[in-house]
Amino acid sequence: MNMAVLNKKPADIISFILIPTYLLFLSSKVSFAQDSINQSQFVSEANTLVSKDGSFELGFFRPGNSNNRYLGIWYKNIPVKTIVWVANRLYPINDSSGLLMINSSGGSVVLMSQNKSAVVWSTSSQRQANNPLLQLLDSGNLVLTVTDEKDENLRISSWESFDYPTDTFLPGMKFGWDLKKGINRLFTAWKKPDDPSPGDFTHGLSEMGIHSYPEAYVWKGNKKFYRAGPWNGLRFSGSPDLKPNPVYDYNFVSNENEVYFTYTLKNKSLISIVVVNQTSHTRDRYTWIETEKVWRVYSSRPRDYCDNYGLCGANGNCVLAASPVCQCLKAFKPKSPELWSSMEWSQGCVRNKPLSCHTDGFVEFVDLKLPDTTYSWVNKSMSLEECRVKCLKNCSCMAYTNSDISGGGSGCAIWFGDLMDIRQFSAGGQNLYIRMSTSELLGVVCCVKFNYEEEKHGPKIKIAVSVAAALAVVSGTLLVGLFTYRIRTNLKVKKEPKGIISHQNNEGQKEDLELPFLDLSTIVGATDNFALNNKLGEGGFGPVHKGILEDGQEIAIKRLSRSSGQGLNEFKNEVRLIAKLQHRNLVKLVACCVQGEEKMLVYEYMPNKSLDSFIFDQTKSKLLDWSMRFNIICGIARGLQYLHQDSRLRIIHRDLKASNVLLDSEMNPKISDFGAARTFGGDQSEGNTKRVFGTYGYMAPEYALDGQFSTKSDVFSFGILLLEIISGKKNRGFFHPNHSHNLIGYAWILWNEGRPLELIDECLGQSSTLSEVLRCIHISLLCVQQCPEDRPSMSSVIVMLGSESALPHPRQPGFYLEKNSNEAHCFSSKQEPSSTNEITITLLEAR
Ligand SMILES: *[C@@H]1O[C@H](CO)[C@@H](O)[C@H](O)[C@H]1NC(C)=O
Ligand SMILES: *[C@@H]1O[C@H](CO)[C@@H](O)[C@H](O)[C@H]1NC(C)=O
Ligand SMILES: *[C@@H]1O[C@H](CO)[C@@H](O)[C@H](O)[C@H]1NC(C)=O
């Protein structure tokens, strides 16, 4: 804001002026009790132009102690001289003269220094114009209008000062682009309070590209200093405090002709302006306080430390309440830890784990200022889901969100490359979905929408932790004592369960096994000597019996067939390894027993038996609604993923099927028989086996035909299981009156005909969430694809189950024509079991 005392010269000082020939007819005695001049009048040192309502005045002024003269506009009705516009800010008149007029052709306004008769400043000229009229409007806009070439009664604006602002954003001005005129209205600070020439502080809307998402900036020189962020339908993303208020109304207009922000005052008797200030390095809104006759700052930008552009570098998040303020976004780490810890954050952050592109997912961050939109893309008509798909498809897309958050959210904005200048708000920010690698998402995402609460409450958590830590220090000894005591007591109880006798090794030393060994006599007692009515079923490698230990604990005992041919130590080592596989979706091995030829595994007992006893049973299947089934699906996926990837052993199950999924009392799924193939099936390495071990209807083609097994053959079995859980039908033994396909084939047909929902088990009725079911069908088809390479890993399956991102199109499944000669051939030399019971078989491949 520039308050200059006008240094008016008395009118008589300007006596004679060298006037260009075209002005010879002008009268120098013009009265300016008016708001406009035409071709035969001019504004000189002696007079001014006043807007109709008397609020603005145009004339010559000399700022501060400067000898330079400028033509400008100021508020006429307030006592503090406030210059809001300057015409010749670059070319001051340094003598005591000056004349503003319309040139003879009428197409432009020129400012002359009188005694040199030189043009100091001029508006862009139009060749010829009729009846030009220069007016100072009540808004403070100086406008040159001319009559339209075609319609004499129509006056059109050929130039206006609002299009060429200086440092002051007046009500009604447009902040931004006029794409037809090709102008961007930028506001540039005065260099000094007595020098209106442009400083290096500029405020305006960023450049418009074809796809760009314009945002408001304050630049210092050509560097970004403060970024207000893109317009999100309600406000600039970095200005949560821009809200409906008693002083002014605002609006953002974006169409093919114009993109601008504007505001108007609610009450015409109020005065409020926005000014860029070189000295304070701020862009301030002032309101005039009539009672005190002063300008008061209403709001100021940048408002705090986090408003400094890019303070935290790429992928950093500025959290004002945190200490230090700069934090890497979740899943990112400082690029240079040394610099970062010395509070030099400009290097920013890099990912903990690299992206894998097509299997990535997104994490929702809440209440952020959206990142710099320089490398962004917008489509105003796309939905958020389409946006996610679009982003996922392009490996350089890092984040997406709605481009407009008004009315519940619409449109799509996506970002490429590093995310710059993000800050955290506690409210009024925006949600941003940032791309993450599968491994970052793992364990957090399956079946539960990622909840980013800890980021939102980051500082709060920190405080809570430090308080807790302080408490711990104060009462340290006491707490530690208590803890040790508790742990010891628990261990005692766990280590010596009744009926379990610790095993003695050959040297007579007690082995420190995590897995207890049970005495055969104990097991014989628990199972009533393996009584038939205690038999639970027949798994791979032997029968399973229920047993009750002396203390009442229920157990399931698998008695391995005697022919495994494995040595005692080998067996013990394997069992010990398998005992270490602990996951809530794996049946827990609680003990084992080796005596003579007998080898037994003791598992926790699952009261609800196996999954097949529910899904394929007309009555019991009604007990499993969709949400339970979905929970079971996710649990199986997690258990399998653990076997494949997270456990040290990298176990391939090789016999995943509904009867190998047990259900605990809360219907949580637990995979059983894992590691069985590895331990008892002979072949222990991935790759190729001579012995095909598995179950008809669940085996992947490459495994059943060529003995090729891998985690992907388990994925195939998982896909079948998924179809069975959804449809309540067995893949093997599936019968359809109209064709000879198995369940996979039937699902494939329905999928291609766009009727996948017909696959759903009728008893699911209303309970199912169709989008979830559809997604599961889609995933199952991806799992049963013919080529192992096409099938997703279990990690990807988990991400797919838990997210809403787009899935690839499934290719043709394997084994979908069960009764087709081609595939029947594979089994032609073997005896197919006559029933459709799922009995694990071991086939010796003829080679
Ligand atoms: C505008 O402000 C004046 C002075 O504060 C007040 O008297 C008047 O009632 C206001 N008008 C409206 C429409 O609010
Ligand atoms: C924006 O999205 C809509 C809907 O998906 C589409 O029809 C349109 O072609 C898109 N526009 C551009 C420029 O991509
Ligand atoms: C991804 O987006 C970038 C930036 O818009 C573009 O240059 C690139 O061609 C896109 N890649 C694909 C595969 O669409």
Automatic annotation (TrEMBL):
Pfam families: B_lectin, DUF3403, PAN_2, PK_Tyr_Ser-Thr, S_locus_glycop. It comes from the Eukaryota. CDD domains: B_lectin, PAN_AP_plant, STKc_IRAK. Residues 357-438 form the Apple domain. The chain crosses the membrane at residues 463-485. GO terms for molecular function: ATP binding; protein serine/threonine kinase activity. Residues 530-812 form the Protein kinase domain. Belongs to the protein kinase superfamily. Ser/Thr protein kinase family. It is found in: Membrane. The lineage of its organism: Eukaryota, Viridiplantae, Streptophyta, Embryophyta, Tracheophyta. GO terms for biological process: recognition of pollen. It catalyses: L-threonyl-[protein] + ATP = O-phospho-L-threonyl-[protein] + ADP + H(+); L-seryl-[protein] + ATP = O-phospho-L-seryl-[protein] + ADP + H(+). This is Receptor-like serine/threonine-protein kinase. Residues 34-157 form the Bulb-type lectin domain. It is an enzyme of class 2 (transferase). It comes from Castanea mollissima. InterPro entries: Bulb-type_lectin_dom, Bulb-type_lectin_dom_sf, Kinase-like_dom_sf, Pan_app, Prot_kinase_dom, S-locus_recpt_kinase_C, S_locus_glycoprot_dom, Ser-Thr/Tyr_kinase_cat_dom.
